[in-house]
Amino acid sequence: AQSVTQLDSQVPVFEEAPVELRCNYSSSVSVYLFWYVQYPNQGLQLLLKYLSGSTLVESINGFEAEFNKSQTSFHLRKPSVHISDTAEYFCAVDDGGATNKLIFGTGTLLAVQP
Amino acid sequence: ETGVTQSPTHLIKTRGQQVTLRCSSQSGHNTVSWYQQALGQGPQFIFQYYREEENGRGNFPPRFSGLQFPNYSSELNVNALELDDSALYLCASSSSKGANYGYTFGSGTRLTVV
């Protein structure tokens, strides 16, 4: 069965510093990969996704993620974070199977400090 | 276009009771998925409805059931509530089956079972 591992439950970082949130998935077949962000007391918002094509995908607010098939990873990066980036980030995979479900990791809390 | 609307936002129920949660999908979306997010965890897939038919189910007991209506809105019903059912319940709609079509999540219903 598919699974997603987010190695860090919390990542503290100072404002304007770079950050990487790690995500590994377990599959050797084609997958669709996603990063979602959840602000306090809100639902999930799609940050970016990899479906096919270029392995580097970007969001409109400066985040990027790179699909690495050999390492089964999809790490999320941002070169300079802002206080407003403080939120829970979830990596997810859809194996495109019959159930059409997203499998989420346990989340990483990005805590940006001034 | 309107997003995904869930009601109620918060709910407190007693163990053994039954609960119904509601979701209005985004305009133009015919697929609704339900997820359970326990505190400190990633969302877990409950089931998906596509054109009023169940289209996949996660590892949840039969006391979790659902419906989708002709206008593509949906209900999640939980019978014989248990303390472990306390969680944030998220509804997500999309224009077709599969996460690659892009899920739009609602803000969720926070269910507390006492």
Topology, pairings included?
The complex is a heterodimer of chains A (114) and B (114).
Chain A: E1 4-5, E2 10-14, E3 19-21, E4 24-25, E5 32-38, E6 44-50, E7 56-58, E8 64-68, E9 73-78, E10 87-94, E11 103-104, E12 108-113
Parallel strand pairs in A: 2-12
Antiparallel strand pairs in A: 1-4, 3-9, 5-6, 5-10, 7-8, 8-9, 10-11, 10-12
Chain B: E1 5-7, E2 10-13, E3 19-24, E4 31-37, E5 44-50, E6 53-57, E7 64-68, E8 74-78, E9 87-94, E10 104-105, E11 109-113
Parallel strand pairs in B: 2-11
Antiparallel strand pairs in B: 1-3, 3-8, 4-5, 4-9, 5-6, 7-8, 9-10, 9-11
Helix content bin of chain A: under 10%
Radius of gyration of chain A: 14 Å
The two chains with the largest interface, and their residue counts, are:
A-B, 26 and 27 residues
Q: Runs of chain A with pLDDT <50, length 5+?
A: none
Rounded average pLDDT of chain B: 93
Distance from first to last alpha carbon of chain A: 41 Å
Strand segment count of chain A: 12
Low-confidence stretches of chain B: none
Mean pLDDT of chain A: 91
The coarse silhouette of chain B is globular
> Given the structure, what is the number of helices of chain A?
0
Q: Can you offer a commentary on this structure?
A:
- The complex is a heterodimer of chains A (114) and B (114).
- Helix content of chain A is 0%, strand content 49%.
- Chain A has no helices and twelve strands.
- With 114 residues, chain A is mainly beta.
- In chain A, the strands form three sheets. In chain A, strands 2, 5, 6, 10, 11 and 12 form a six-stranded mixed beta sheet that branches.
- The model of chain A has no long low-confidence stretch (mean pLDDT 91).
- Chain A is globular.
- Chain A has strands at 4-5, 10-14, 19-21, 24-25, 32-38, 44-50, 56-58, 64-68, 73-78, 87-94, 103-104, 108-113.
- Chain B is mainly β.
- Chain B is built from no helices and eleven strands.
- In chain B, the strands form two sheets. In chain B, strands 2, 4, 5, 6, 9, 10 and 11 form a seven-stranded mixed beta sheet that branches. In chain B, strands 1-3-8-7 form a four-stranded antiparallel beta sheet, with no helix packed on it.
- In chain B, a hairpin with a 5-residue loop joins strand 7 (64-68) and strand 8.
- Chain B is globular and about 35 Å long.
- Chain B starts with a strand and ends with a strand.
- In chain B, 40% of the residues are buried.
- The chains are: A mainly beta (114), B mainly beta (114).
- The interface between A and B is medium-sized, with 26 and 27 residues.
